[in-house]
Amino acid sequence: MSKPRLNLSRLKNRVIAIDGPAGSGKSTTARLLAARLGYSYLDTGAMYRALTHFALSKGVSPGDASKLQALAEHLTIEFKTEQSVNHVFINGEEVTDAIRTPEVTAHVSEVSAHKGVRQAMVAKQKEIGKKGAIVAEGRDTTTVVFPDADLKVYMDASIKQRAQRRMIDLARMGLSTTLEAQMAEIKRRDDFDSGRKHSPLTRAKDSITIDTTSMTIEEQVDRIITLLKDVLK
After folding, report:
1. Do residues 80 and 89 touch, judged by C-beta distance below 8 A?
2. What is the pTM assigned to this prediction?
3. In this model, does residue 27 exceed pLDDT 70?
4. What is the CATH number of domain 15-223?
């Protein structure tokens, strides 16, 4: 039996921001949380993945900051949630699976590190957030995109657990890999995202950390709802 959706209709412009490294569970948790609350779901990471996929398909180098910024400023990225699946569209074309390939994963950190790219994307994300009633997740949503969010959460998990989750995601796409390869890839992305000059992955001082290593997705969602209730007392 599904859990009843919380009645938060009396609340306006509430924003829940969730940050964390790859594989921490934030994307699935944020999507299910939004559904439980009746909020919109904003996957900021998918936006950078969409840009990366589009750039690679057009032959634009992940290191070409000016061309990437121009693409980011003019690209139309849309989300549509159907049957608990967050579908991603670029200029009207669905790219839900295409943005999760190993090729995109290998280059998305470099693409998203460019200052102009982040400025363009953050502007789009802030505009979406003006509508309120939103659950946003990514790597700088609590520190840069929505620093005044009503609730800030930082999700984390052990590298091994995060790598295992990534392997499951890839298996669903018919792609095989190894635990060692995914642990190395996640470590590389952690180092890059935390060390980049513009909008690095950091924990906001007023965010609440949740270690999801031994938690189910439902437990993660329930935990954040409990935190939200405490904030709104």
Report:
1. yes
2. 0.84
3. yes
4. 3.40.50.300
